Amino acid sequence: MRTAGKILSVKRAVAVRAALKKAGKKAVFTNGCFDLLHAGHVYSLEKARSLGDFLFLGLNSDASVRRLKGPSRPFNKAADRATVLAALAAVDAVVVFGEDTPHDLIKALRPDILVKGADYRNAAVAGAEFAGRVALIPLLKGRSTTALSKKLQGRC
Question: Any idea what the Cα angle at residue 69 is, between residues 131 and 46, rounded to 5°?
């Protein structure tokens, strides 16, 4: 499938999810800003994809990233971030959402597995009540967009 074909509207993603469910396929969901793609992201996405048959990736919109990360972010626009993420073999679909959390998107998709990083161990996972289960996966030490940003700004 072409990269552009993997970037879906919420409506299209819900239709794909319904087809997956009918076919008995396991849907996995994860989300994030993915502002500067790095090895930690790739590791997490591959781990998430390995848990099921299809990986939906919820991508924060530009406005959402600004609210969460500050006025200097995102570094890359949502359309560019979505294109890069859709090009990854581990990602089956990218859906951009505008809220600060993917709660409503998860409610619409109702994935079998909701994946977050292990840093959520003691935190509430948005939308968990709409997923079959939550899986927490380990993070790669020292790999983060914040660390990369500081390094690029000469603060490391």
Answer: 45
Condensed to tens digits (0 to 9), the pLDDT of residues 125-154 reads 999 999 999 999 987 665 555 555 555 566
> Side by side, which strands form the sheet with 113-117?
93-97, 54-60, 27-32, 113-117, 133-137
What are the backbone dihedrals phi and psi of residue 115, each rounded to the nearest 5 degrees, phi first? Answer: -110, 130
The answer to whether 35 and 74 have CB atoms below 8 angstroms apart is yes
Does residue 6 contact residue 92 with C-beta atoms inside 8 Å? yes
Structural domains of the chain, with CATH: 3-152 (3.40.50.620)
With CA atoms as reference, report the closest residue to 29 among 43, 17, 12, 11.
Answer: 17
pLDDT the model gives residue 6 = 98
